[in-house]
Write a structure and sequence with these properties.
One of its GO terms (cellular component) is mitochondrial inner membrane. It is a single-pass membrane protein. It is found in: Mitochondrion inner membrane. This protein has 87 residues and is mainly α. 41% of the residues lie in helices and 0% in strands. It has four helices and no strands.
């Protein structure tokens, strides 16, 4: 029998598809799917890019709240307290 011009061998395919094959226990597409979970597509990197700027915004907001509490005292907060007693 002449070899298949495409390189496909039905006997190798049947051997690999049998339950006794060492390949039967492994996912044949695992190597092709591995890129989805490595490098820039890892779970941490996907989560990290979920909220861009959240870390900088949180630090800036905390700094502003601290600045407001320490340096921006409201001198007129008690100005109108005595006006309502006589009404």
């Amino acid at each position: 029998m002449a070899p298949n011009p495409t390189g496909f061998s039905i006997s190798e395919f049947k051997a690999a598809a049998s339950r006794s094959s060492p390949y039967a226990k492994r996912d044949p597409w695992a190597r092709h799917e591995a890129w989805r979970y490595n490098g820039p597509f890892s779970r941490w990197n996907r989560f990290k890019g979920l909220f861009p700027g959240l870390g900088i915004a949180s630090v800036a907001f905390a700094a502003y709240c601290t600045y407001e509490a320490l340096f921006m005292k409201d001198d007129h907060a008690h100005h109108g307290d005595g006006h309502h007693e006589g009404h």
